[in-house]
Structure formats: C-alpha cells, structure tokens
Design a protein that fits this description.
The complex is a heterotrimer of chains A (222), B (97) and C (310). Chain A is of the alpha/beta class and 222 residues long. Chain A has seven helices and nine strands. Chain B has one domain. The chains are: A alpha/beta (222), B mainly alpha (97), C alpha/beta (310).
C-alpha cells in the first residue's frame, strides 16, 4: 500500500495560520492501514492543532470527517454538502487524495497534512518498509521475488556493489543489502548463472521517467 | 479502567486541550501488568504525546507516566505530590477556553 | 588480448607482458588548473597511466573528462573514470564520444559511491544503467561501432576498458563470480579496491586464477600506503567495503607517530613485492591520493622504475 507520514505539526500550523475554520478529512484506505490518516489520527491531529491554537489564543474551529477513499470521485462526492463551509481543508490521505479533492471542489483550498513516501508493507507492527518503486516493468521473478530497483539504493541490476558489508547497504547499517539476499538465494538454489550475464538496458518509459502515467481498462470505460 | 493499556493518546490530548494543567497516568510496575503488556504500550503512547506537545510548544512534562503496584499506597501519595509540584513549577496551562 | 584496442600506453605495457604500475589523482574541488598540473608532475614518468577520479565519494570536483584532457595536454596518460550515479545513458554516451575526441584512451567503469556520502546528499541519483551495463555499452561502441540504441557511430571510441573489483565486500564467495561477469561483459583490465588483508586477497586470487580469469583480463592489485594509524582506523570504520585487519593497525601503532608514514610505505612496498610474484596479478594500482609527491619515492623503492617504454 501507499505509505505516508504526518507532516510536522509546525508545518501544518503554518499552512493554516490564517484560517479560522477548518475541516480535517481522513481516508479509510492506505493511510488508515499505516496509521497515519485514519479516524484516530484525524482526531489526534485535531486535538493537537486545537491545543496549539488555544495556546496562542487564536480561535480555530476544527471539524473532522473521514471517507472511504479520497482517490474515488464516488466517495469524494459525499463531501459536497459541507466542504465549502470551511476556510480550508486538511487532507490526511496520500498525495492522490488532496488532488482529487481539489479537482472536485475548485473553490476550496486543500492542504496535504501528510508526506507520501513509498509503496510498501508492514514488516512488523508499526514498521513499514519500501518494496516497490512503481517502475512499470516488474522483474522480481528474475531475482527470486526480490526487487533490486526499489530495494537497492543504486537500483543496480548486477549488484552488489563494492560497498555491501555484512549483508548491509553502505548508506545505512540498518538497511538490508538486497543484493546480498538475492545472491544468497541464487547460490542456495544453484542458479548463480542467472546473475552472470549482462541484462539489457532498462526501458524507463514505463516508470515515472516516461511522464505522468495513465491506465485504462477499455472493457470498463463507458 | 482495568488497565492503563486502555488509555488512548486522544484521552491525554483532550484533557490538555480542555484545560488540564497536567495529566498523569499511574500504571502497574513494568513486568507486573495484569494484562501482560498494557502498561508498556501506554508508556509508548505517553512518550508520543510528550513529543506532540513539544512540537507545538507545550511543556512535555505536563503529561507523565508512573509505575507502581496497587499495594504501594505510600508511593501513590508520593507520586501525586511529585506531579503536583512539577505542575506547580510549570505554572497553569497556557490554554484558555 | 592480442590486437590493440586503444593503443594506450597502459594497454601496450600489459600486452607486452610487463608488470604495470598505475597511479591516481583526484581533480580539484574547484577549477584551479595550475595546482592540478603541479600534482601531475609528481606522477609523470613514474606510472603507466593515472586514474582521474569522477566525483569520488560523491564529493563534487572538476569533471574527470576535463581533468583527463588536461593530463593528455601535459603529455601523460589518464585513465578516465566514469560513475553511473550522476549521468544517464545519454550523458554517458556523449562523454565517451568526448573522451575519444579529446585523445583519452583508457576508461574505468564504476557504479559510484552513493551521494549520501558526499557534499550534495540532497541530489537525485541517476543510475539509469549500472557499471556492468556500462562496460558492455562502451565495448560495444568500440568493437561493433553501435550506440546502445543500435545506431551506427562514425568514429568508434578506441578505449581500453577497465572495471573495479572489491574482493573485500560481501558476500565474499560471490565476488569472484562478479569479477567473471565484468570480464564477460568486456572489461580489458581490472583494478581492485586497496588491499590490506593479504590473506583474503591471496584466497581471492587463487579462486580467480582457478577460473582462468587472469588469462582473459589484466588484474591490477590496489595499494594505498597508510599515512598514520588515524587513517587506518578511519578507513576501517567509515569506508564501506574496506577490510583493514588488526595486524595492520597494530603494526602502525607499534611505531612512533612520526615514523608511521614510513611504516605504511614499508608495508605497501612489501605488498608490491609479493604482487610481482603472485600468480594472476598483472600489475599494481598505487592510490597515493593527496600524497602524489610521495609516488616517485614509492615507485623507486618498489623497484618499478624506470617504467617500460613501449
């Protein structure tokens, strides 16, 4: 899923410093799963902003709500009755959310309350790790189910580089060297030869490098 | 409540938002939680609330967690005095409702 | 390893069967040409070719291409280094054509240290292709006369192509296979990361020779003389993939501070003497970075002077 982290409170306070009445909208999708923008987190943000503004004696009315997904106009539409009653709206969804909201409600100001970071999953309770770079041409089966594009700091296709040390990446002793894992697995399976040729240069057009992307299911369009 | 594990981050924040000068959570001694790890989880929540308060310029010491057993009547009184004194030193909450 | 691919001095020295001795020089963190040229003079005549580093450790310096060209102008031979971290295949190809145009004849293909190590950690990293693919790209340009997209090149770059090898990075068992892969991709010569753990390197070379890699490619052993025990400790702790054994630290600690540099040089000389006899090792790559003025003395004491004229 998409992982995001709440922006620092000081940054959010700066965004809304001139506003007197705001709405915080959460999302029951990815940000709920990574405990960043679900109902609980929306309330926590509301309380935190409330404390901060009260401390400065600067009145602020904060309403809170949550919709199923902010990346779906069907649900975004549910806000139509009330969304324009506010000076500004804070979205706790990933970067997609506030953009969909802006398009649906062009007369309102939407601020992102979170920084969207990566595609990943929970490896333990409270810990999420990046797994996918959205490169558009998935090749993890060539590497025994591991992705070197997303998980190697240099996106090497013929790693590990000379900085791999005791299974860790040169940039951070907490970061797994994914190539160490790939090589170990290949050696275990007796498939080392898979790694010894030279792979064709990647076509990065399927990734963000080719420009903003679009996906169409012809059989579903109306 | 049966266990401090039931204390929510929101409870603590709301208390401060509503004007409490301080909030303290008294839980079982670490390793002696009747529900095994409730008090440990709450310790983390209290730490998180302290961080939030610090971010917005509130004194993090206004929220605190203490550990004691239900038999330690004397310690309970001591904690109450400690917390009260701490808050007295910090002064009344800057929040005006 | 028969027909000359570039006609470079380094290539000729190696194909003639001499023990090669290359040096290294980092371009300046600015555009001070006079100072750079002064550094060159220490190396002139004392080495077969000089590696010109490319934003090494992700610290911004004058480009390797420009500095290499300045070296050609001084009548010396550069080994132009290129990292994949900072440029995509377009810029890479353009720089290779530029190298050919500027009379540069040797090229070293590297991935590059991650930019978080350097002085512009906020930069975007590129890594459009990796060092393995770079080796293939440039040797294809040279031998088949085509760009990566298949189009024909009018004047092929005639470059003697090298790659790096770190026998001390993990996983150790894989390192010799990765070396084989680089040779398979087209590398003509290899320079290893600087060596301090001689036992491990001996084992590595044994495996490389076992696989016959030394017959397909010239392997040069990397040597960096330690200036003092502080440097040894620093390299052990902070340089990724570096293996500095306790014995080396002990040896340096065992002498007065003012004598440590000499002890470091002595160790380096011992290494070079062993490499001259070691099966599979075709030469030494002496990386006396920011110590270029010591190279004439070191070369003399290693018994590699005068350099062969080919």
């Amino acid at each position: 899923m998409i992982v995001a982290d709440r922006k620092p409170l000081t940054e959010i306070l700066k965004m809304i410093e001139a506003e007197k009445k705001i709405l915080i909208v959460g999302c029951k999708g990815c940000v709920t799963v990574c405990n960043t923008g679900g109902l609980k987190e929306v309330e926590i943000l509301a309380a935190s902003l409330g404390i901060a503004r009260k401390k400065e004696n600067s009145a602020l009315t904060i309403d809170t709500t949550i919709i199923e997904r902010q990346c779906d106009n069907e649900y975004v539409a549910q806000l139509s009755e009330t969304v324009n009653d506010y000076d500004a709206v804070l979205s706790m969804a990933c970067g997609v959310g506030p953009q969909f909201l802006s398009e649906a409600y062009p007369d309102q100001k939407f601020f992102p309350a979170v920084n969207t970071t990566f595609y990943g999953g929970a490896v333990a309770h409270g810990i999420w790790e990046e797994r996918c770079a959205g490169c558009g041409t998935c090749i993890i089966h060539d590497f025994e189910g591991l992705c070197p594009i997303a998980r190697c700091a240099k996106s090497l296709l013929h790693g590990p580089c000379g900085g791999s040390s005791q299974t860790k990446c040169e940039i951070n002793p907490d970061t797994q060297c994914i190539w160490d894992l790939i090589v170990s697995k290949k050696m275990e399976l007796g498939k080392l030869d898979d790694l010894l040729g030279v792979r064709e240069l990647r076509d990065w057009r399927s990734a963000r490098d080719g420009g903003p992307r679009r996906s169409i299911r012809e059989e579903l369009t109306q | 409540m049966p266990c401090t594990g039931r204390v929510d981050i929101l409870h603590l924040l709301k208390a401060i938002e509503d004007g409490a000068d301080g909030v303290y959570v008294a839980g079982c001694l670490e390793g002696e939680c009747h529900y095994l790890t409730g008090n440990i989880k709450t310790k983390k929540k209290v730490t998180y609330v302290k961080q939030l308060l610090e971010e917005i310029g509130m004194e993090p010491d206004r929220v605190e967690m203490y550990n004691l057993s239900s038999a330690q009547g004397g310690r309970f009184a001591e904690i109450a005095r400690e917390m009260t004194e701490k808050i007295r030193q910090l002064g009344p909450t800057p929040i005006k409702n | 390893m028969s027909d000359l691919k570039s006609g470079s001095n380094l290539e000729k020295v190696l194909t003639a069967g001499h023990f090669a001795f290359t040096g290294e020089c980092g371009p300046p963190k600015g555009a001070n040409v006079a100072h750079l040229v002064e550094k060159f003079q220490h190396l002139k005549g004392n080495v077969d070719a000089v590696n010109i580093t490319d934003n090494q450790t992700a610290v911004v310096r004058m480009s390797s291409l420009a500095a290499s060209h300045l070296m050609v102008h001084e009548g010396m031979e550069p080994n132009f280094q290129m990292v994949c971290r900072d440029r995509n295949r377009l810029a890479i190809t353009a720089d290779i054509l530029g190298a050919q145009a500027l009379g540069i004849k040797n090229m070293l293909c590297l991935s590059g240290d991650h930019q978080t190590f350097g002085n512009h950690p906020q930069a975007k990293n590129v890594h459009d292709i990796d060092s393995m693919q770079l080796i293939k790209l440039v040797t294809t340009m040279r031998d088949k006369g085509t760009f990566a997209n298949g189009e024909k090149i009018d004047v092929r770059p005639r470059l003697f192509v090298g790659a790096a090898c770190n026998p001390f990075a993990d996983p150790f068992d894989y390192r010799v296979h990765r070396l084989a892969a680089k040779i398979g991709a087209g590398a003509d010569f290899i320079q290893t990361q600087c060596i301090y753990n001689m036992d491990k390197f001996r084992e590595f070379m044994r495996r490389a020779v076992d696989m016959g890699l030394h017959e397909k490619c010239y392997i040069l052993a990397g040597v960096t003389p330690m200036k003092n025990v502080g440097m040894a400790n620093f390299m052990r702790k902070f340089v990724p993939g570096m293996d500095v054994p306790d014995t080396v630290i002990k040896r340096l600690k065992g002498v007065e501070k003012k004598d440590q540099a000499e002890e470091g040089i002595k160790f380096a000389i011992e290494q070079v003497e062993e490499f001259k006899e070691m099966e599979g090792v075709a030469g030494v790559h002496m990386m006396a970075i920011e110590w270029e003025h010591k190279v004439p003395e070191i070369a003399e004491r290693c018994g590699v002077l005068p350099r062969p004229l080919v």
